[in-house]
Amino acid sequence: MANNITYKEFSDENNYTALSAEVMSIRARGNSPMACIRTYGCQQNVADSEKIKGMLFDMGFGFTENAEDADFILFNTCAVREHAEDRVFGNVGALKNIKRKHPSVLIGLCGCMMEQQHVTDRLYKSFPFVGLVFGTHSLHKFPELFYNAITAGKRVYETGVDDKTVYEGIPIKRDGTFKGWLPIMYGCNNFCTYCIVPYTRGRERSRKFDDVVNEAKQMINAGYKDITLLGQNVNSYGKNFEEKVTFAQLLSEIDKIEGDYWIRFMTSHPKDCSKELIDVIAGSKHISSHLHLPFQSGNDRVLKAMNRSYNREKYLDIINYAKEKIPDLSLTSDIIVGFPGETYEEFLDTVTLVKEVEFTSLFTFIYSPREGTPAAKFDDPYSAAEKSKWFQELLKVQEEIAAKRCASMVGKTVKILVEGKTDKDGILTGRTSGNIIVDFPGEENIIGEFAYVKITKARNWILNGELV
Length: 468
Prior knowledge:
about 35% helix; 6-stranded parallel sheet; alpha/beta; 15 helices; about 20% strand
């Protein structure tokens, strides 16, 4: 079982209060120091950035979206796809001019990319103006690392230090007021052959049951209407506990909390998606009728090469059970096109699965090799042009399915959470329990509230409606 330590215990031991007081008097170009935090990648990275902001806020920092105005600039990085890495390096390079104009500015990088040796080696050699680098396992030590970086006069790098501990009580400065992220576990034990996450996030560690439930209560009492439980594989929650507890039991307990809210979760691995979980969703008051269940490929040979630990039949079995138990269920998924060695005929098995399930929407990607994963060494005889052609074929199929599904909702009245404004005057946007976007005319004072909207028109991915 993972160790669980409160952030207060750790910070008291390391005298973070004194460090914070020191930081207040250092390198502020204005009345108070300002930080600019940019986050790349998944929702877990967003949640991590909210903790970093919480610690900075406790140090006395304000926040700005403009890097030019910041005393501290931090990029929280993603390693899942090569494109994300390229963007980070390009954007870091652009900060060189800020450092030249304002030498006192501290530039830092953290997150999954920093847990890869080839990345940190490149940073150290090619970006000497980057003064702070730390990985996913050192987030709880951020105040100490930050203090060292601004006082030691040399670059501070800390990566690869996984003490397998869950640190509770880290201060959080959430980005939203009615939608929020709630991590329930960290790391992954699955080691899919294409995925870098187990190497950058470590092995699975679940937060204590009561800690998660209490944080959910706090968020609901604070007015959060849409809370997403996060984990690399939420269905594995509790497997490292001595006393068995399941993700379905955790969901069921959170669902008992009084209030008007929705609970979502991601990401869910098919090999661990149980009928118990589906039954809990079906009988719940607050759990959204949306299941994101990535299948990646519809071909059994490719799934085995990916080390996904399920086959097409097992995936369809749980999908069909979910459809039977939750009639208004909205299904979404992830797909990799062009996995090394995948033939066109094997790709067509993915297309037929998409047609059979009829997903609401899909997150589709052309395979991107990640250094350090087994799949990066697999033979890959098919060209990028061929894979792109397959990719477009899949998108066309899904567009037709999505258009049909959206058209079937015209005339229905749905409950939505109003999320904000569109770029059109007087038009608001919201989301259904099934995670479908709805645009409609309305006043801004209902942003952050639930509303009922009658659907009047369907586009491929978005619905139009009017307030009831």
